[in-house]
TrEMBL record:
Keywords of the record: Carbohydrate metabolism, Glycosyltransferase, Transferase
Family: Belongs to the disproportionating enzyme family.
Name under which the protein is recorded: 4-alpha-glucanotransferase
Catalytic reactions of this protein: Transfers a segment of a (1->4)-alpha-D-glucan to a new position in an acceptor, which may be glucose or a (1->4)-alpha-D-glucan
GO terms, molecular function: 4-alpha-glucanotransferase activity
Amino acid sequence: MDAVNRFGGTILPLQAFLPRTSTPKRKFLHAIYPSSATSSSSGSEDALLSSSSSLSLSLDRVSQSLFVKSPSRNSNSTPITTFSPGDDLPTSYVEDDPFKKAAPRRAGVLLHPTSLPGPFGIGELGKQAFVLVDWLYSAGCTVWQVLPLVPPGCKSGEDGSPYSGQDANCGNTLLISLEALVDDGLLDANDLPEPIPAGKINFELVAKIKDPLLVKAAKKLLNEKGPLKVEMDSFSKQPVISAWLEDAALFAAIDAMVDEEFWWNWPAPLRDRNPDAVKKVLQEQRSFIEIFIAKQFLFQRQWQSIHTYANSKGIRIIGDMPIYVAGHSADVWANRSQFELDKATGKPCLVSGVPPDAFSATGQRWGSPLYNWKAMAKDGYSWWVKRIKRAFDLYDEFRIDHFRGMAAYWAVPADSKTAAIGTWKMGPGEDFFTAIRKAVGKVDIIAEDLGLITGDVVKLRKAIDAAGMAVLQFAFGGGPKNPYLLHNHEKDQVVYPGTHDNDTTLGWWRRLSSEEKKKVLEYISLEDENDISWVLIKEAVSSVSRTAIIPMQDIMGLDNSARMNTPAVQFGNWAWRMGEAGCIEKLEKEAARLKHLLLKYDRLIG
């Protein structure tokens, strides 16, 4: 069974969907068919291998869900442009059906792994993640969108935010499943902590409980000589990993040693990466660095097991890439010339944000250092090439947050306390994406083009063939020309009832004024206000936009208490969880209801 690769229609064998690390075939199949793998004596590997033939249909769903643009290599059709007026056309002429060639419509769910059920205070990359994939498959979904998988920055001041990570490429090790580590023999069952009720995530408490156990598992892995250790050694040597892992580990080691909020306040030899100072850290902090690398391997191994399983079910994973990275990060410290920094100290000169608008008189000051785009262009955007290659190591496609910054961006002086003072500057534009395509190949991205959008942003998005976004909660103000109303949608868009930055649909509805509700009801039919979540789900999947993505909170019909993030509010975000183990399996009716809508609106693939 073959599938279509994201890079230009090349055909890949089934092995391309196996784990990206050297996980043994038996473990992969056991992950996919756990019910068949409960006993090594009852079915043996032969039984598992024979059952793998059922992957064919699922891989059909994967290949059908891609943007397939290359023609069939066996096509014998002659382009119509080779004929002259009055010439006879071949009999195959009538077979050129543009509707059959159109990219299939699809739908999926937005849910970050932290929100999954799990016993230890946070969603994990364990059994419940596989249960979710099975649920998505049963509902007819072919995409699963997640937020950035990076570790939230401990010094970012934003509790648990995946958009304020300390490293753009590392995985969030708090997502590592402790129970899976027991299965791997890296922890004992009696090491596991007491279960924590599935309420809001307390990130500080979770770290306090899980970090010592992750260190223990990492140490045991480092002392092993078996296949798992060999697999880890291979992981750290992969170019897509080694390009960032060593700097990330070194940065984390120094950060643990030096009690400063920002790296530009470190002692000068460490701040400036003096070779002797770096060599000393590598020697004195060798154990810390090895444990850091081992934990990243464990994250990678568990995530790729889920990723591979999702692909085997015909489900593509859409990731999320914040356009900017945190100043206090290995990314900036190890690549100073690529950012707008003071040449002597490394302190940011210009930082990110957006200007004042109708919602904020002072704008939003995000505070991430801005890129030195001219310096980046000189070396072919190599820093970005490495970052995008890493993204495709984790995801099948991804969204670029604040895409408008690629066309033009708001530059705020670093010493300004608000974003009210700033300047619009030219972004890298199409030249950037040309360089990326040259280095990486065709990339499937979603452009987050919300907020202040000018003509250059739209022109750039269309020039690179990226899908834009439409959010229904933004649709019902400004009259019939509002771009988010259904009749203004475009095929090359991803439509959402709301995103992680919006309230849940039910929460949004309950906060609308009577006059605002009246405007909504002029456009949609609503018999029961408590069913507003499913009304907007129906509107989303009926859109002409090729992709529709539904927040899990809306599928569950939840109110404002399940909101994931409130922009410009620093604390109390990112903490929502679905519930206790078993809550996904209880969503059978919701899966059937969603599948019915997907069938009705031609989003059911396979």
